[in-house]
Design goal:
The protein is of the alpha+beta class. It has nine helices and six strands; from the N terminus they run αααββααααββααββ. It has two domains: about 160 residues, Isoleucyl-tRNA Synthetase, Domain 1 (Orthogonal Bundle), CATH 1.10.730; about 60 residues, Ubiquitin-like (UB roll). β3 and β4 form a beta hairpin. The longest helix has 19 residues. The termini are far apart.
Length: about 230
């Protein structure tokens, strides 16, 4: 049912802001769904947004100590960053803020696992976060050493080359049944993949006493070795 004073079911935003902060409320409202649609209110979901902001804040600190460094970002750091830039940029252009929030959560979790402290990455993250959690973004922006507002920062540009994988994992199948997987360089040729699959130690027990009729390589997915007696 709709919120109504007469139904005594109105949620007081002031109480939510007092408990969780304005950024948490703003982020949760964005997370609920498309802005053009009516959405059910569930106060339990606010806790998730609050925890996310705390986790994001902790990327910049180790306890009470400032943790951001000028070390060069790793490939994994940059891959996570540019996936986020791509997703948020696309979502903002069509007002699909609700799908950006999970993307932020995934990125923060990945950076936490990667132990990312790179200024290049985290500073860009703050710019992306600003429309969603402006108070926290502004605070972090100034702690990063900027005198101007984060709102004046240029929007980050997406670099597709950062998303390219160095390796791919392919399933190795025999007569349509996947038996194991092998890793290959992303630019490996079909001939290289076929040779490696046939020579792999794991393949020998399936090849024993059989004749290879053909090898089907589906790029990026699977290698199917067709056998006959």
């Amino acid at each position: 049912e709709k919120m109504s004073k007469s139904m005594f079911n109105v949620v007081n935003p002031d109480l939510i802001v007092e408990k969780y902060g304005a950024d948490t409320l703003r982020l949760y409202e964005m997370f609920l769904g498309p802005i053009s649609q009516s959405k059910p209110w569930d106060s339990n979901g606010i806790d998730g947004c609050f925890r996310f902001l705390k986790k994001a804040w902790n990327l910049f600190f180790r306890g009470e100590d400032w943790a951001v460094t000028d070390t060069a970002p790793t490939k994994e750091n940059l891959k996570t960053l540019h996936k986020l830039i791509k997703k948020v940029t696309e979502d903002v252009e069509v007002f699909a803020y609700n799908t950006s929030v999970p993307a932020f959560m995934i990125a923060v979790s990945e950076w936490a696992q990667q132990k990312c402290t790179s200024r290049e990455v985290l500073e860009t993250f703050v710019v992306l976060l600003a429309p969603f959690a402006p108070h926290m973004a502004e605070e972090l922006w100034h702690r990063l050493g900027h005198d101007t507002t984060v709102c004046d920062a240029a929007w980050p540009a997406f670099d597709e080359s950062r998303l390219k994988e160095d390796t791919v994992t392919l399933g190795i199948s025999f007569n349509g049944k996947t038996r194991f997987t092998l890793d290959f360089p992303a630019d490996a040729t079909k001939e290289t993949i076929e040779k490696a699959a046939l020579e792999a130690e794991q393949s020998q027990k399936y090849l024993d006493g059989m004749t290879v009729a053909k090898v089907i390589v589906v790029p990026g997915r699977i290698v199917n070795i067709v056998l006959k007696k």
